[in-house]
Amino acid sequence: MARKTLAWSLLLGMACSIVIGSYEESFPTRTFSSNNYHEAIQRLQSFKASLTRHDSIASASSSLSTFSSPSSAPSPSLSLQGVNNPRVYRVTSYGADPTGNSDSTEALLAAIEDAAKGPSEGYLMEGIRDLGGAQINLEGGNYLISRSLKLPVAGVGNLMIHGGTIRASDNFPEDGYIIDLSPSSNGRNSLPSYNFEFITLKELLLDSNFRGGGISVINSLRTNIDNCYITHFTTNGILVQSGHETYIRNSFLGQHITAGGDKNERNFSGTGITLQGNDNAVTDVVIFSAAIGIMVTGQANAFSGVHCYNKATGFGGTGIYLKLPGLTQTRIVNSYMDYTSIVAEDPVQLHISSSFFLGDANIVLKSKNGIVNGVDIVDNMFSGSNQGVEIVQLDQSNSPFQQIDQVIVDRNIARGMKLKATVAKMSMQGNGTSWSVDFNNVLLFPNLIKNVQYSLSSSGSTFPNHALRNVSENRVVIETNEAVAANVFVTVDQSALS
């Protein structure tokens, strides 16, 4: 085995020597520029690395023929020609100014167009060309643009834009988005079911310069927004409209760059994230300034690890607003509502758990048509300022809740706030024939008890008869047939669950 390994190493070394020698002989006798020299070295390193792959040894000679002459100009489309190299479109090769001093709109759009119209590897969804993982590399630059960056055609996927800063200029359209994933006006006449699929926007800082929004994703499928910082927007930091499965994670959004306690917090406007589609997820995201952290008008969305301190509810702000009366289908877990509340209109199928609410932040169930069904608010922590704010509050200013079913508010803990629940336990000690237990202080819904369990414990020598005599106005009355000294234990439930 050792001999085979030694022979294999010698063979590779000889092959590399032959290739390097042949390559050097092809150069005319002249002085290289630093750019050509480094490019040649990178090509040789790429080729050498390919030789170590078992599937590349046999094709080494054909791979070598793909090298261009060092005197020829590099293609602006591909960053490095060579073996096993991905399609990387470096924007500075198109004339983009990485200092941000001059407008780079046309250069960035040219790079995007080349990537979108480049070679494909078949199809993803029907009508979506697979671009094979093409990358538009911003090279860590800071680029100024004067209009939205859009793909020139719909029906493409498997593309990434990453690695830099893009800022809107002073004449950027006020209703535009820095990156706009919507069909271009000069796109195809016949559009696929979805505009784009598997577009990744990663490691970007987007500065809207108080003119419009950051990212717009329209009717797209499986879009990734990862590790982005979006600021100075006036409309939406991120807008998702229609489509499916946009995943937003590890990102920071704020209209103003602040870390809380901003003296102008009352004037914050705009929305951090607007979800107008289904089946999306927001994970490990911070929204640090905006009037509304997340506005949701689509079903079946999930939120985890979200921290909202965008604009305090006391100043008129909202952390997460679920504007889906009648069919919410939303899950919020392991999140941090920092002086900002969650508001849900006529919630149907809503789960909120394992989250922390600070500074009198709470959950507001807002009646539009009097419906609340399938709501689960459990295992959360609430901390307030002893102002009597309820952890879960009913807003019945439009109409009272009348269709109430399967609502569980339980196992929450509160400090400095008023605990509310749909399940409650109380005990009373007394001497007499009647015990009236009042649950109004803790039960969420008025005049609603659907299940009662009680026990009566008497220390006397007699065995009194006892019965549940009345349940109304969130009060339970237990009576005995004779006066006794007894303890009464009562559990009530406002849900219809057994």
Protein architecture, described:
The protein has helices at residues 2-25, 34-51, 60-64, 105-116, and strands at residues 88-90, 129-137, 142-145, 149-150, 156-168, 177-181, 196-207, 213-218, 221-226, 229-231, 236-254, 271-278, 281-289, 292-296, 301-304, 307-308, 318-322, 330-333, 336-338, 342-345, 348-353, 356-358, 363-366, 371-378, 381-383, 392-395, 403-410, 413-415, 423-438, 451-458, 466-472, 475-493. With 498 residues, the protein is mainly β. Among the domains are: 40-67, no CATH class; 86-207 and 242-254, Single-stranded right-handed beta-helix, Pectin lyase-like (Pectate Lyase C-like, 3 Solenoid); 423-493. Strand 31 (466-472) and strand 32 form a beta hairpin. Mean pLDDT is 86; it is low at 14-34, 47-75 and 77-85.
Provide a brief overview of the structure.
The protein is mainly β. It has 4 helices and 32 strands. It has helices spanning 2-25, 34-51, 60-64, 105-116; strands at residues 88-90, 129-137, 142-145, 149-150, 156-168, 177-181, 196-207, 213-218, 221-226, 229-231, 236-254, 271-278, 281-289, 292-296, 301-304, 307-308, 318-322, 330-333, 336-338, 342-345, 348-353, 356-358, 363-366, 371-378, 381-383, 392-395, 403-410, 413-415, 423-438, 451-458, 466-472, 475-493.
